[in-house]
Write a structure and sequence with these properties.
The complex is a heterodimer of chains A (114) and B (418). With 114 residues, chain A is α+β, with helices and mostly antiparallel strands. Chain A has helices at residues 34-45, 76-85; strands spanning 2-6, 15-21, 24-29, 48-49, 52-57, 62-67, 71-72, 87-88, 97-103, 106-110. Chain A has 2 helices and 10 strands, in the order βββαββββαβββ. In chain A, strand 5 (52-57) and strand 6 form a beta hairpin. Chain A is elongated, with a radius of gyration of 17 Å. Classes of the chains: A alpha+beta (114), B alpha/beta (418).
């Protein structure tokens, strides 16, 4: 089966064609860098996305956060539910863990200093 | 705060930060950054999504992370910053008048000024959409600020007009926060947003994109209750009988950005009608000596990485100006030729050192085309490109020797090959 993907790794947005047999990619064309090839491989097996959002801080302001690695696409809304229940104690620095293992073994980390 | 500085930078977003660091490192340490928000970082603070910095840092950063890398550098150099300070006016002799709650109205005298005010969103008013004026109509960036900075969801049932990147990003953001985004309507036959944002912001969440469609009516009295969306013909006029109705409580406009040049105008600095930014030389100096412009206030960039690069050039140029490295210029114009909507810089100083990267945009989508820089009948440079679209800035690197040898203006053209 042939699948057509738009790569989301960089602003170029290469159109990648993937030939899938028995759930595995057997041929990948159209990518122009290793990131694109890796994205296409992952996308046809188990699509993943980095989730970015905000978490309420103890003083009522918002701290921007992201999953440190892409989480399963099917898990995005479960991750959002956990994010919306979480709070973070200030001060916080970029890279600090805000929620441990928010999906599988992937942490939610702060992306802003506050 | 003092009443005179070597360089005053207006705006503490990505452009102002990069310009300040570069100017400092080029040898001018007496710098003041004026920022109207309560912190540095500019629009990056509300752009919490990732995807910034791949060109510059070879990794995907969120907006605040990208900003923090520059803010850290500014702090390391102890460059002076005034936040919550709005600049009211600028004069040709580089007197900056500003206001804040600490000093009231005050003036600072600069030897050089860097304009780094960024841009503003086009509003509903600029588009003349019919209907009453209910609550629930926002520009996409305003909605982004509400959601990401203030923590309010501006609505639960949304239609977005315009498929620029901010609109696409907000379609995903509102969806993640529990809103239903019914549609993104784009009057053009193509989206001006990045392909990856169509994929990861719309397709991932099954949000339909209606190309060649626009909102023809906003309904509602106190609050938006719905919109009428119509298909448009090739002249972008709505076609009768194609109307679709969406119930919604919120309409977001993502219909383009306009460089914020009120201060530039107040100083009597020449603006280009094409870019709505200042006319500049290759070192990003405006037509007023010692006033430089960079980032989105000069031209609306596709990527912040390019804003940083341009602003470093402006910062270094401002430092050189302060250090007295200036000579009489020998000026030629860069002319927008066939199918080219604008070129930055608009002016070239033939005596200036260094190769020049020209930035330009096409007036439409062209395939299998040739980009040419020529002076009279002499072709200086030619480059082939498979596809050129207005949404993506193109570049052309002109060698210094070719500029120095030019016997007149240089014209940039874009032509499709037969």
């Amino acid at each position: 089966m042939k699948t057509s993907l738009t790569c989301i790794e960089c602003p170029i947005g290469c159109q990648i064609e993937v030939e899938v047999e028995n759930g595995k990619p057997v041929s990948i064309t159209g990518y122009s860098c290793p990131r694109g090839k890796a994205y296409a491989e992952s996308e046809v097996i188990c699509p993943r996305r980095v989730v970015t959002s905000t978490v309420k801080a103890t003083d009522g302001t918002l701290v921007p956060v992201k999953t440190e690695r892409p989480v399963k696409k099917s898990d995005i809304f479960a991750v959002m539910q956990k994010i919306n229940k979480a709070t973070v104690t200030l001060p916080v620095k970029i890279g600090d863990i805000v929620v441990e293992n928010i999906s599988e073994d992937i942490h939610l980390i702060a992306t802003g200093n506050a | 705060m003092k009443n005179a500085y070597d360089i005053v930078i207006i705006g503490g977003g990505p452009a102002g930060l990069a310009a300040a660091i570069a100017a400092y490192d080029a040898g001018v340490k007496d710098i003041l950054i004026l920022e109207r928000e309560d912190r540095l970082g500019g629009i990056l603070n509300q752009c919490i999504h990732n995807g910034f910095g791949l060109t510059r840092f070879k990794e995907s950063l969120s907006g605040p992370e990208y900003a923090a890398r520059f803010i850290d550098e500014v702090e390391k150099r102890a460059i002076e910053v005034l936040t919550q300070t709005t600049v009211l006016s600028l004069t040709k002799d580089k007197t900056v008048t500003a206001i804040n709650t600490e000093y009231g109205v005050f003036t600072v005298q600069a030897k050089a000024v860097v304009l780094a005010m960024g841009c503003r969103e086009r509003s509903r008013g600029a588009l003349n959409v019919a209907g009453s004026r209910p609550a629930g109509v926002y520009s996409a960036g305003t909605a982004q600020k509400y959601v990401n900075i203030k923590g309010y969801l501006p609505g639960k049932s949304v239609v977005i007009l315009g498929s620029g990147d901010i609109g696409l990003i907000m379609a995903r953001r509102m969806t993640l926060e529990g809103a239903k985004v019914h549609a993104v309507c784009e009057i053009m036959p193509y989206s001006s947003g990045l392909k990856r944002n169509i994929a990861q912001c719309l397709d991932d969440f099954d949000i339909p994109l209606y190309l060649n469609h626009t909102i023809t009516k906003i309904e509602g009295d106190k609050r938006v209750t719905g919109v009428v969306v119509s298909k448009v013909d090739e002249n972008r006029k709505p076609i009768k009988g194609t109307e679709m109705h969406f119930d919604c409580d919120t309409v977001l406009f993502s219909v383009g950005l306009i460089p914020e040049n009120e201060l530039t105008k107040s100083a009597g600095i020449d603006l280009s009608p094409r870019t709505r930014g200042a006319v500049v030389y290759q070192n990003r100096e405006t037509l007023v000596d010692g006033v430089f412009a960079c980032g989105n206030v000069l031209q609306v960039h596709d990527l912040v990485d390019f804003v940083s690069e341009e602003s470093e050039l402006a910062g270094v140029s401002a430092a050189k100006y302060v250090l007295g490295e200036r000579e009489e210029k020998d000026v030629i114009d860069v002319v927008n030729g066939k199918n080219v909507s604008y070129v930055i810089p608009q002016k070239l100083d033939k005596k200036a050192s260094g190769n020049v990267k020209l930035f330009f945009r096409a007036t439409g989508t062209f395939r299998n085309c040739v980009i040419t820089a020529k002076c009279g009948d002499t072709v200086l440079l030619q480059r082939k490109k498979q596809i050129v679209v207005p949404g993506e800035m193109e570049t052309l690197l002109l060698a210094q020797a070719k500029i120095a040898a030019a016997q007149g203006n240089i014209e940039i053209t874009l032509e499709e090959q037969a």
